[in-house]
Each structure stands twice: as C-alpha cells, then as structure tokens.
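In response to the reviewer comment on reproducibility (Comment 2.3), we provide here a single inverse folding case reported in full, input and output, so that an independent group could reproduce the run without further information from us. The structure tokens appear first.
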C-alpha cells in the first residue's frame, strides 16, 4: 500500500496458518490454514510410540489443509 503496488491486481500475497489478524490486514490476507492441534497430537503419538520401542503406523500423516481465500490473492 505504501509503495502504491495494487494487491492483488499486480502482486498476489498469501500467508500461512491463518494467523490471528490475517483477516484484519488491508487487504485481508489469503492464507493456508493447517490443523495445528491435530499435527501436534499426531506428532506426540508418533514420538510416544518410538519411545516405547514401537514403530509408528506410518512415517508420515496427511492431515490436510484449507485455503482461506480473502482479498490479497
């Protein structure tokens, strides 16, 4: 805004994790929301399994994401 570059007409901007305030920016920030609590839970479960000497069921877990479309992209 300060430089006079029109967003999203000339440059599109996107954030990550839909942080607090993303919707209050000018223009409101398009962002990718990840399930942070579920990521923590899955990571803790895998770590506890390893600490017990067990193999985790999988070396990776797809918990998905959500694109939150706002006015910046």
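Designed residues, in position order:
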């Amino acid at each position: 805004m300060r430089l006079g570059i029109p967003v999203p007409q000339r440059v599109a901007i996107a954030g990550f994790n839909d942080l607090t305030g993303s919707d209050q920016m000018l223009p409101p920030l398009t962002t990718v929301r990840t399930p942070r609590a579920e990521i923590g839970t899955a990571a803790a479960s895998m770590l506890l399994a390893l600490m017990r000497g067990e193999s985790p069921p999988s070396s990776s877990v797809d918990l998905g994401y959500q694109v939150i479309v706002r006015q910046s992209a």
